[in-house]
Amino acid sequence: MKEPLRKSVLAVGPFHPLQEEMEFFQLTVDGEKVTDIDVRISYNHRGIEKLSETLQFDQVPYLVSRVCGICSASHPLAYVQAVEEIAGVQPPERALYVRTIINELERIHSHLLWVGLGGHFIGYDTVFMWAWKYREPVLDLLEEITGNRNNYGNVKVGGCREDIPDELIPKINQELDVIEKKTEMLTKAVLDDPVLHARLKGVGVLSKEDGIKYAVTGPTARGSGIAIDVRRDDPYAAYAALDWKVIVQTEGDVFAKAVVRLLETFESIKMVRQALAKLPKGPVAVDVKEIPPGEGCGHAEAPRGETFHYVRSDGGNRPVRHKIRAPSYVNVPSFKASCIGADIADVTLTLAAVDPCYSCTERIAVVDGHHAVLHDYEELLRLSRAKTATIRKDLGAPEMNWEDF
Amino acid sequence: MQPNEFHKQLTPIRDRLAGLDRTADNRVFLPCEAAQVYEVCRFLFQDLGLRFVISTGIDAEDRFEVLHHFSDDASGCVVTVKAFVRDRQAPELDSLTPLIPGAEWTEREMHDLLGIRFRHHPNLQRLILADDWPEGVYPLRKDVQA
Lengths: 405, 146
What we know:
Shape of chain A: globular
Low-confidence stretches of chain A: 357-372
Number of helices of chain B: 3
Strand content of chain B: 25-35%
Helix content of chain A: 40-55%
Oligomer: heterodimer
Distance between the termini of chain A: 65 Å
């Protein structure tokens, strides 16, 4: 008779109210060490690619802005760029700047959202509260420009739906000053804190070689020394006209990814300021009549990495095929490289460092032979936070006093 | 990437390609038959060092097409290998996953949604479809209504 399997399996997911999507991670563990990881996705597959084939070219941007509530500017942008490539349409200058501004505001709020959640996972709830508080005015600005806090649907084939009113520019600049100061404070708090160094350095390392094999993009790649950024490599919108730099760290651990995101926030603030200063006069859209037969690839740098859209047209008024690749689709499988060999207490953080869907931590079932122990979300958080507390004690760090900030 | 320079770089695999379409300054399509796809992609990934982006599977009426998109980040050029899978009854081609682990999900997805088999794929399990979805129904084929 076959020996019964005696592997311990940790089930992470699939549901949590925090997450954007459902995902299920099955970790095989040996004591505290993770020896294998299996990911199951598609619990809430919405069939957007198929739906897109039933919509007209000008309706699709509203559909794809709902692919993700956080990246709802970069998906439609990648799509319209693909269609504009097929139709040979050049949007007006002003539209390119408006697209740039919306996309960078999106990056600012998305990175602050990540910093907050990262803090929450390791027991720095103050960071969570503060980062999300500073993020709020960015959403308000987006609402003032596009009419929506998320799902802006502001791009269309041939330009933009809504313009940035000139009266709003001083207000945007004012808010950016505040956000810059607060992000500076957060960055200093992270870079100067010995506890965070001890907690985040060397955790969840993704090597450059593994990063290339798993085709990762965005801050996940740039944290591992892979210097790629669509905004620089294949400039779209108005990025070629702006002065900014690609942030790269070589360590590949959670700390490196955090540093990349924080420093990128400053670059985004810089870019929005420049774009506002240079904003050309004129219309924000041109008329597009027909989309000829052909195929096009559009890509844009979303907060989490490259968003890629492929569109094929047969000359009708609907795409015959529309392929969407969100950055997490290639970033999530890299857990196979970064989680194996790690401690269970570090796994939630490593998963979160890619900035996928945070949901994964809802429910953990430890199945060991006949015994099944259910670890809930609280228990996982406790494990992660307990490790931070131990490090803090070992370092002799004083209790955090947030009044100082 | 300068057009001439790139065309020269492709010399070792030129015989395997059925053509070379440049639809825009930095968009290149390389059509080929399904049997050649592994060697062409291996050349792009290993020898030219292009980054794998994603694959698109298409039901193109009389055949299937599998598009492997690569990106040359040094120049921003998107290079797409377009493989024609002509056998509609048993569509099959070589998997890229043994070479590029990042292709695992997208190949499983095409297997689920279009019914294209990938030879030598290490784990051709369902990814998108639910476990109780009926066998032989492929939602992304044109004969399935949205």
